[in-house]
Amino acid sequence: MAQQGFTRAVVLDEAIVFQQCDENAADSLRPGADKLLIRLSRSGLFVGLFFRSDISARKSQALREIGVSKGLHLIQTFSDQSQVLSEAQCVVVCAEKNLEEFKASLDSSWNFIAAEDSTLQLESLPFAITSLIKKELGNKITLVGHCMNWKREKDLLQRGALPFMSTFGMSFTPLDLSSSLDRQLSVVDIVLNKATDEIVSVSKVVSDTNEKWINFSDRFNKLERYLQEHPDIHVVDPTDRVTPLMDRVATQSLLEELPLIEVAAGGPIVRPPRCVKVTGFDDAALFDKLKSANLVVPTIVKPQIACGASESHTMAIVFEDRGYSNLAVPLPAVIQEYVDHQSVIFKFYVLGEQVFYSTRKSTPDAVVLRTMINTEAPSIVFDSLKTLPTGRAVDEKAAESALDITAMRSTAAVLRRKLGLTIIGFDVVVSMCVLM
C-alpha cells in the first residue's frame, strides 16, 4: 500500500517512450524521449520503465539497453513491486489507451498522467510531474522553473543539480516556453533565467544609448513580456540587470565605480584591470589612449561584445606596440592589461550570500607564453573557446596563500549590491609582483 506523502517515484509506460511503427520497421524513440529520460534519471526520483511481456524481442532489448544506460528500473509486472514502489507515493505516465489497464492493476492512491498518442508532448511531462510534487508539499518546497539551453542543463544534471525531488526545500523543473506560460508560472515560485542562451543576434556596434542591440529568441521575448506583466514573480536574474555584463565597456564602467578593497592595511588591493575602449587599431590617437589609461604591453584585446556572437570570442595578446597594426579583432574593442599571474586563475561563484571558488591553471606569463608557442610575432590572435597553452603553476599554494578570502567575500558582496544580481561569476588573478 503506497504511503500518503509526496511523489518519490515515477513509472513510465514504454508506449510513452517509443512511437509505434509499422510491423516491418523497428520501433524508435519518440522525439524528445532521450532528453526526458536523462532528466528523469537525474531527477532524484525512483524511475521505473514498464513494458509488457508480449513486446518484440528487439524492443525488449532496446528497453533493457535504455534501462542500463540511464539507470532506470525495468518493470514487467506490478505483482512483484519493489519496496520503493510499495511504500512511495507514485505517478504513472502512460498512453491514454493504457490508462484503464494501469488503474485496474495499481494502488488507488497513485497519480496518473495520461496523454493521447497524437498530441503527446514529452517536453511538458517534467512540469506535469514537478507540479504534482508542488501540489502535495505546498509551501514546504520552493519550485524553481529554469530556462537554459539543453547543453547547459545537461551539464548541470550530470553534476547532480536541478533535481525534481525536493532537496533542501527546493525542486527544479524545466520551463517549456512553447506551452502555456500562465499554466507553468502560476505554479513555480522562482524563474531561473539564463538570458544569454536565448540570444539570436547582436549588433556589430554596441549602442551607447538605450537602443536595443541584443535580439533574443521569440520564445524568450514571450517569457520576458509575461514577466513584465507579472512583476510579483521572482526572477533570477532579471534580464535588464544581466544585459550590461554582455558589454565589456559597460562592465568595466560598473567595476570602476566600485570601491577599492585592500587585502591588508597598506598592502595589495582588489581592483578591475586597466582598460580602454578603441574603435580602430591604426588610429593616430591609439597610443595616446593607451598612455592615458596607463596601459603598456603586454595587453589582451577583446571585442566589446562579450557573448551572443561567434566573433565575441576572437581575442589577441599583444607583446609589442607594433602588434596593434591591422589586428584581426572585431571592433569596437577593449584593450586590457595582461597581468602576469604565475599561470593560476581563481574562478569565483556567488550564489546569494554564499561565495565559492576553484583554482585552475591559466595562460603563462607573457614572456613564457611567447616562448611556448615559439613565435616572434608582435601579437597573436586566438579563439577564447579554444584554450591557449596553460603553464605549470610555479607555486599554486603560494598563489592561493596570497588570495585573501575575506577580501574576496567583501568584493563579492559589493558586486552583488552594485549589480543587483543573485548569481555572479568572476575571475581573479594575483599579480606576480605580489607573489614575489
Number of strands: 23
Low-pLDDT stretches = none
State the distance separating the first and last CA atoms: 69 Å
Supply the CATH superfamily name of the largest domain.
ATP-grasp fold, B domain
Strand order of the largest sheet: 5-4-1-6-7
Mean pLDDT: 87
Number of domains: 3
SS field, number of helical segments? 16
The level 1 CATH classification of the largest domain is Alpha Beta
CATH architecture of the largest domain: 2-Layer Sandwich
Which class of secondary structure composition applies to the elements?
alpha/beta
Beta-strand level of the residues, as a percent range?
A: 15-25%
Family: Belongs to the ITPK1 family.
Domain Inositol 1,3,4-trisphosphate 5/6-kinase ATP-grasp: 273-430
Keywords: ATP-binding, Kinase, Magnesium, Metal-binding, Nucleotide-binding, Transferase
Subunit structure: Monomer.
Structure, explained:
The protein is α/β, with parallel strands linked by helices and 436 residues long. The protein folds into three domains: 1-120, Rossmann fold (3-Layer(aba) Sandwich); 126-236, Rossmann fold (3-Layer(aba) Sandwich), CATH 3.40.50; 248-435, D-amino Acid Aminotransferase, Chain A, domain 1 (2-Layer Sandwich), CATH 3.30.470. 30% of the residues lie in helices and 24% in strands. The protein has 16 helices and 23 strands. It has helices spanning 14-17, 33-41, 57-70, 83-87, 99-105, 125-137, 150-158, 181-185, 218-229, 239-242, 248-256, 286-292, 366-372, 396-401, 405-419, 432-435, and strands spanning 7-13, 18-19, 28-29, 46-50, 73-75, 89-95, 111-115, 142-147, 170-174, 190-193, 199-202, 214-216, 234-236, 261-262, 269-270, 275-278, 299-303, 314-318, 333-337, 344-351, 354-361, 379-383, 423-428. It has a five-stranded parallel beta sheet, sandwiched between helices. It has a five-stranded antiparallel beta sheet with strand order 16-19-17-18-22, sandwiched between helices. Strands 9-8-10-13 form a four-stranded parallel beta sheet, with helices on one face. Helix 3 (57-70) links the parallel strand 4 (46-50) and strand 5 (73-75). The protein is elongated. 28% of the residues are buried. The model has no long low-confidence stretch (mean pLDDT 87).
